[in-house]
Structures are given as C-alpha cells and as structure tokens.
Design goal:
about 15% strand; 5 strands; about 180 residues; 3-stranded parallel sheet; two-stranded antiparallel ribbon
C-alpha cells in the first residue's frame, strides 16, 4: 500500500497486518470468544471495552469458522485443531488488508481445511492479501501464486499451473512426487 510499516504508529500497524503463527500459544484461561475478540484490540482505546461493531465482527467469525458451539470453552478444553481455528478467528477479526500465516491449518481436520480455503478465497476477493506458508502441497497448489523454497532459498515463483513449477517441485522433492 505504499507505506513503510516502521513509520506507522503501532496501533495502525496492528490494523494493517494480522498474523497467525504455527502452533501459537494463547492464554489457556481465555474462552474462544475472548481469543477471537483479541483481534479487535487494535480498534479499541486503552481501558475501553468492545462496542457493538466489535461484537458483530467476532460473532461473524465465530459463525463462519464454526466455533459457535465452542465459544464458551477455554483453550485448555480444545483439541489442537479447534485451538488453531480459534486463533485463526483472532487473526481474521483484525480485518487487516494483509494476513500472514505460518502453517495455519496444522492439526486441523479435512472439513476445516476446506472451510479455511473457502475463507481465504473470500478474503482475496475482498482485496485482502493472504500470504501463507504451507507444507501441504495439495492446498498450496490451490493458491493464486506459489513461491517454492528449498533450504531457505527461493527456487521459483509462479502460478500453480506452470509446468516449470511442476518440474521444480519434482526436483526439490527428489522425484518422490507426481503432479496431476
């Protein structure tokens, strides 16, 4: 967006970039609703509470991520996949134009992975840039753009349908994979 993040106040940075790390830790005594509401902190003043807009956004993500049955459960009561979905809800509640994720669907069941992919597609249609590290090639190859890395180096960047990318993938994986 033509801005240097270092020049922005920290609260403005927090509104522009959301992050979901791999196996991120959260305070175990928080409920799922509390965790998702943390994504709204960049929009609140010190000492203020959530307003009706914050509540509506959190409610929307709880519903979309199928977290409503879990909303009052504490993080310690969740499976690792449910916990990851709650943390994803927190990142999405920020509503940042840039969403960075490192293995966001680790430990998440297949139906939830499919929902994650639908959510990402919806976000990109709404002009959100989503950058995600994925080791699951089946999901990675559904991206708009793929950056293939090997031993910390960029090997190639291309669309998933590029035959040169397919060849590079076979080489990086020592011809142990086939792309159909």
């Amino acid at each position: 967006q033509g801005l240097h993040l270092r020049n922005l106040p920290i609260k403005e940075r927090a509104r522009r970039v959301a992050w979901l790390g791999q196996q991120e830790q959260g305070s175990d005594d928080l409920t799922v609703s509390d965790v998702v509401m943390l994504g709204r902190l960049p929009y609140q003043s010190l000492g203020s509470t959530a307003d009706s807009r914050d509540e509506a956004i959190v409610q929307g993500w709880l519903e979309q991520l199928q977290l409503m049955p879990l909303k009052d459960k504490r993080l310690t009561e969740l499976s690792s996949g449910e916990r990851q979905r709650a943390l994803l809800g927190r990142a999405l509640a920020v509503q940042a134009p840039l969403l960075l994720m490192d293995e966001p669907i680790a430990h998440v069941d297949l139906p939830s992975q499919s929902e994650w992919l639908k959510t990402v597609r919806q976000l990109t249609r709404q002009d959100t840039t989503v950058v995600s590290v994925l080791h699951d090639l089946n999901l990675a190859m559904r991206a708009d753009h793929v950056v293939l890395m090997h031993q910390g180096q960029v090997v190639m960047q291309s669309t998933p349908h590029d035959t040169q990318l397919h060849q590079a993938l076979r080489e990086v994986f020592q011809h142990c994979i086939a792309i159909h």
